Each structure stands twice: as structure tokens, then as C-alpha cells.
Write the C-alpha cells for this entry.
Amino acid sequence: MAPSESLQSLVATPVVEQINRLLLDINQESDATSIAFCHTFLSQYIAFGRPLSGYFTICCVMEMEWTVLLWCTKDLGLEDGEKAKKALRNVLVDALQCFSDLLEQIEGIEAEPPVDTYEWETVSKSLRLVSVCSVALRELYEHLHICLTQLLSDSAPILDNLVQKSALKATTVLVQSFPEIAPSFNPHP
């Protein structure tokens, strides 16, 4: 199964619900040592005010994918690898779809997203993942370019600091690889 298919299946509602139930299952079916370990881990985690959920897992998958791609971009040998290119395009499309879906969801609510959905973090990581894929493929995706110019404009749909920081990082990476797009980010021609 391609990484993009794995990611797609991971964000399916039944999978997220199953991941969310994991902690309950551990408490019901594990021995005292395992339960103590889980409670210790969770108490440290919750002390920072963030719930552990299936959404967190999705966020972590995005983080792992972009980090691994970032480290491997020089060693991918994409000139000869059509399978690698296809896999990267699938990851890019899925991450861009994730970004678009979350943006639409965020715009549809009037309050901050609930902290247990990790929406800001997932939006941020999907931007990174898409930009790294684009650079690895040596192809600029227009939809990504449009998203970044919107996020960095005066009328940005998301003003969260984490998302803005990721948009700036993604833009920096893209402009370094595709210098011809730099003028499009200047609001005063």
C-alpha cells in the first residue's frame, strides 16, 4: 500500500474512533504495569493541556512524513523512479486535500477549533509536507502557491501563529527552489 493510501485510510472516521477508544481498551485489558505506564505517560502529556486522541495520531503521521521526506529528498533518485514520483504525488495530493478540508472546516465554524482535534497543527504540518513534496518532485503545484499567497495576505482565512509560521516556512522553501514565484508574494509590485 502506498504511503498516501495509508494516510488516507488513517484519517477515515472508523479508524479515528478506534484510536480514540484505544486508551479505554488498554485500561480494561492490560495488566497493572501497563496501566501504570499509560497513566504516567498520559499524566505528563495532559499536564501540558493537550488531549491524546486519534487526531493527534494523524498530526504525528503528517509530521513523520514531512520530516522523513525532508531528510531523504537528496537521496530519492527521482530522475529514474517513476514509482517514487507517483508516491510523492499521491502524498502531496492527500496532504493538500487534508489542508483544504481542514481550512473549509475551520472557516465553517465561528469559534476556535477544539484543542483535541489538532487542526492548527495538522494544517501546519500538511503545508510543510506539501512544500517538501513539491520541492522533491521539482514541480510547483499551483493550488499550493494560491493557498500560501492567501494565507500570507491581509485577508488570510487563518490567523493562527503556528499556521502563519508554517506558511512562511513553506514559502521560503518554495521560493528557494522556484525563485520565479518570489514576486507573487510581494503585495506591493
Summary: The radius of gyration is 19 Å. The mean pLDDT is 76. Residues 3-181 form one domain.
